[in-house]
């Protein structure tokens, strides 16, 4: 059985981000290597840098796991493709008006809605979390 000494030496990273990868030994893996890569976000959630974007009202494009609307009355939050790298998104509306999460196609599904839509409202002072299966954004709260 391999030990931690069998893993390659990794360079020190002084400013970690959520996309940084950690080596993990997978006991159930098959094939020549049981060493896998795991993103830092999968282990710790939000990283100290690079995972939180703050923005004032207006048109906001989601580029990180957490987007915080800091002010303003009207916001449009453009969600990335559900098949992209970011598959877990949180939008916190700290502005003074309702924000609207939008998608290029009808792929946002909220719990009471039987079909997917192109928009979802995020009320003032609330949080919306969107999880993707690669095809649809599901609003979980």
The ordered H/E elements are EEHEEEEEEEE
Q: Strand count, sense and closure of the main sheet? A: 8 strands, mixed
How much helicity do the residues have?
A: under 10%
Q: For the record, give the distance between the C-alpha atoms at the N and C termini, rounded to a whole number.
A: 43 Å
Strand fraction band? 35-45%
Question: Which radius of gyration do the C-alpha atoms yield?
Answer: 18 Å
Task: Give me the number of helical elements.
Answer: 1
The number of distinct structural domains comes to 2
> In total, how many beta strands?
10
From the spread of the alpha carbons, the general shape counts as elongated
> What structural class do you assign from the helix and strand content?
mainly beta
Provide the residue-averaged pLDDT: 82
Low-confidence spans: pLDDT under 50, at least 5 residues?
none
Compact summary:
The chain is built from one helix and ten strands; from the N terminus they run ββαββββββββ. It is mostly beta strands and 141 residues long.
Task: Detail the topology: elements first, then pairings.
Blueprint: E1 21-25, E2 35-39, H1 40-44, E3 52-61, E4 66-78, E5 88-93, E6 99-102, E7 108-109, E8 119-122, E9 127-132, E10 137-139
Protein model, in words:
- This protein is mainly beta and 141 residues long.
- The protein folds into two domains: 41 residues, no CATH class; 88 residues.
- The chain contains one helix and ten strands, in the order ββαββββββββ.
- The strands form two sheets. Strands 3, 4, 5, 6, 7, 8, 9 and 10 form an eight-stranded mixed β-sheet that branches.
- A hairpin with a 4-residue loop joins β9 and β10.
- It is elongated.
- The N and C termini lie far apart (43 Å).
């Amino acid at each position: 059985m391999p030990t931690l000494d069998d893993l390659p030496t990794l360079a020190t990273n002084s400013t970690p981000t959520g996309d940084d990868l950690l080596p993990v030994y997978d006991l159930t893996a098959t094939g020549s290597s049981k060493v896998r890569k795991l993103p830092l976000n999968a282990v710790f959630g939000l990283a100290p840098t690079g995972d939180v974007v703050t923005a004032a009202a207006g048109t906001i494009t989601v580029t990180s796991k957490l987007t915080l609307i800091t002010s303003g009355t009207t916001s449009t939050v453009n969600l990335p493709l559900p098949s992209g790298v970011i598959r877990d998104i949180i939008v916190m509306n700290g502005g003074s008006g309702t924000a609207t999460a939008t998608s290029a196609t009808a792929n946002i599904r909220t719990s009471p809605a039987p079909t997917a839509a192109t928009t979802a409202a995020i009320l003032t002072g609330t949080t919306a979390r969107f999880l993707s299966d690669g095809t649809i954004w599901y609003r979980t709260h």
